[in-house]
Specification:
Organism: Chitinimonas viridis
Largest sheet: 6 strands, parallel
Enzyme class: transferase
CATH topology: Rossmann fold
Number of helices: 8
Structural class: alpha/beta
CATH architecture: 3-Layer(aba) Sandwich
Radius of gyration: 17 Å
Keywords: Kinase, Transferase
Helix content: 40-55%
Bound molecules: adenosine-5'-triphosphate
Strand order of the largest sheet: 2-3-1-4-5-6
Distance between the termini: 23 Å
Domain Deoxynucleoside kinase: 9-199
Oligomer: single chain
Strand content: 5-15%
Number of domains: 1
Number of strands: 6
Pfam family, one: dNK
Order of helices and strands: EHEHHEHHEHHEHE
CATH superfamily: P-loop containing nucleotide triphosphate hydrolases
Shape: globular
Amino acid sequence: MGLERYRYIVVEGPIGVGKTTLARKLAERLESNLLLEDPDAIPFLPKFYQDMQRYALPTQLSFLFQRVEQVESLTQIDLFGGQTVADFLFDKDPLFAELILSDDEFRLYADIYRHLRVRAATPDLVIYLQADVDTLISRVQSRSRDYEAKIPDGYLRRLTERYSRFFYDYTEAPVLSVNTENLNLAGNSDDFQLLLDRIAGMRSAREYFNKA
Ligand SMILES: Nc1ncnc2c1ncn2[C@@H]1O[C@H](COP(=O)(O)OP(=O)(O)OP(=O)(O)O)[C@@H](O)[C@H]1O
């Protein structure tokens, strides 16, 4: 199948693009370990969407500590072997921090981040999912988590821009950028198979997949 060579695959992209959906499907197909972000375990998140300025710091720190724990569990998984699929990249944590924190808060966050000295494993492949902001909005609405009704469109737009810049500069691991506008990974198994073939056929460190 050509997918065995990836021991650690990360699916990334802005809120609602479909990371969790794809990570679950990949893990099921590969019979691999699955590492998922758990937004329901962040008690500040609903409050954050109501008052971003006030709740940005506790929300950001809660996500950071959750990711640290998950990255540590990855080391455990590694001991037992097998493949792992995750729906987040540890290195993207500061991307959110820069977007939502004030300058002073960001300095404090950066100190904590540095002192944690996390050594996150480098993925063998990052699948970077992309979609228009309007598509993100409709996908977020389709999963109907009540508190997400308050996510401002401008926030999703700025986040999407930050993601583009982040991956423009990112060279740590091979990246497959996937335009998901016409690729229904939620329901269409043909589309999922197309993507699997594309992943298996990946030959260089940076490739693009755009279903015509
Ligand atoms: N390629 C796709 N085409 C159409 N709908 C999709 C696609 N991928 C995911 N969806 C749908 O969009 C919604 C959001 O998907 P999902 O929860 O996987 O996003 P996410 O990127 O993991 O979000 P978050 O960043 O909040 O964790 C779900 O309802 C899912 O069924």
